[in-house]
């Protein structure tokens, strides 16, 4: 089984306890571990895959708590870094439909330094780039781009999730698109939400959006559509794979559970070329990932809601 290196942020989500879309009315918050790449690493490990988290937290009680959570979930944290800068914090509220509102105080995640020793580890392994904060500058962005180059030169399987957050990129959407383009060009797997696929392709129609994204370069496209399931597209075929019916309480982490479950399954696969042409196999991989996403929406929080292999099998 290949290792999956997950590069990006790990942060504290302070989740508003009194439910409601309006953060300004929230009075109490519960501390939770968050950050899309860290969630993906946890999703893989909870499904008994091998994941390594590469990111930076503050050398403070919040940072220690975050690393401990990853370790409890069997994520390899030996490549995680600690900084004197405080741990990154996000404040989140969740409405009745499980949708989120958030504000963000950026700290240590941007401090990630490039480590040359990782490059050799990328050979015959997989690297997942989750871009929520990585495109926002700092050492993280520089390290992120260098790791991307390393993954390319070592022929790693590359997965990319742009993790677009409208609030962070208002009036700078074109900069975001420009920064994502090299990753779309070279990734084997690209995971997009509907909004991301439309923004990054410049096309409203999903078929046309896929055509543009394939043209840029990405081989396997998955567009997650919430309760409608997932659109799977390769250069040879395209289909929507339905999800399972659940009653969602919090959609946080559903996309991360989904891509984590896909990566875990791909990590057990020997040949990417064979996989790319295997419609049946890819369909099964996405169907199981849909299930992982759906299960995650039935509980509050991200990491604690990610399914174990046992839950996924049941
Ligand atoms: P995120 O906001 O975490 O980045 P996302 O927008 O990429 O996530 P979603 O589309 O919300 O991801 O969810 C990922 C997958 O989880 C979906 O493709 C679907 O299979 C499953 N899923 C999400 N919400 C539901 C739901 N309400 N009912 C059933 N399945 C769901």
Automatic annotation (TrEMBL):
Per UniProt, the keywords (alphabetical) are: Kinase, Transferase
The record, for CDD domains, names: bac_FRK (cd01167)
Q: PANTHER family annotated for this entry? A: HEXOKINASE FAMILY MEMBER, PUTATIVE-RELATED
One Gene Ontology molecular-function label? kinase activity
Classification via InterPro entries: PfkB_Carbo_kinase, PfkB_dom, Ribokinase-like
Q: Which domain of life is it from?
A: Bacteria
Q: Name one Pfam family in it.
A: PfkB
Please identify the protein, giving its name as recorded: Carbohydrate kinase
Q: Which family does it belong to?
A: Belongs to the carbohydrate kinase PfkB family.
């Amino acid at each position: 089984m290949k290792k999956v290196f997950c590069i990006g942020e790990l942060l504290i989500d302070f989740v508003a306890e009194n439910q409601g879309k309006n953060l300004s009315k929230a009075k109490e918050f519960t501390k939770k571990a968050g950050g899309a790449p860290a969630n993906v690493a946890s999703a893989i490990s909870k499904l008994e895959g091998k994941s390594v988290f590469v990111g930076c937290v503050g050398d403070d009680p919040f940072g220690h708590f975050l690393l401990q959570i990853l370790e409890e979930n069997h994520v390899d944290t030996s490549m995680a870094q600690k900084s004197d800068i405080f741990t990154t914090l996000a404040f989140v509220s969740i409405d009745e439909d499980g949708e989120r509102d958030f504000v963000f105080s950026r700290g240590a995640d941007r401090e990630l330094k490039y480590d040359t020793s990782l490059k050799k580890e990328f050979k015959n392994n997989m690297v997942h780039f989750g871009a929520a904060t990585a495109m926002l500058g700092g050492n993280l962005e520089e390290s992120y781009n260098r790791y991307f180059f390393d993954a390319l030169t070592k022929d790693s399987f590359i997965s990319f999730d742009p993790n677009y957050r409208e609030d962070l990129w208002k009036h700078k959407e074109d900069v975001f698109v420009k920064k994502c383009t090299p990753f779309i060009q070279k990734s084997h797997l690209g995971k997009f939400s509907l909004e991301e696929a439309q923004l990054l392709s410049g096309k409203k129609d999903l078929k046309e959006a896929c055509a543009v994204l394939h043209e840029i370069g990405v081989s396997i496209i998955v567009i997650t559509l919430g309760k409608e399931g997932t659109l799977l597209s390769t250069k040879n075929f395209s289909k929507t794979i339905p999800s399972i019916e659940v009653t969602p309480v919090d959609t946080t982490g559903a996309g991360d559970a989904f891509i984590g479950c896909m990566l875990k399954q791909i990590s057990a696969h020997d040949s990417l070329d064979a996989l790319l042409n295997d419609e049946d196999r890819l369909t099964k991989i996405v169907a199981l990932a849909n299930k992982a996403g759906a299960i995650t929406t039935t509980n509050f929080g991200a990491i604690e809601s990610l399914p174990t292999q046992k839950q996924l099998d049941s």
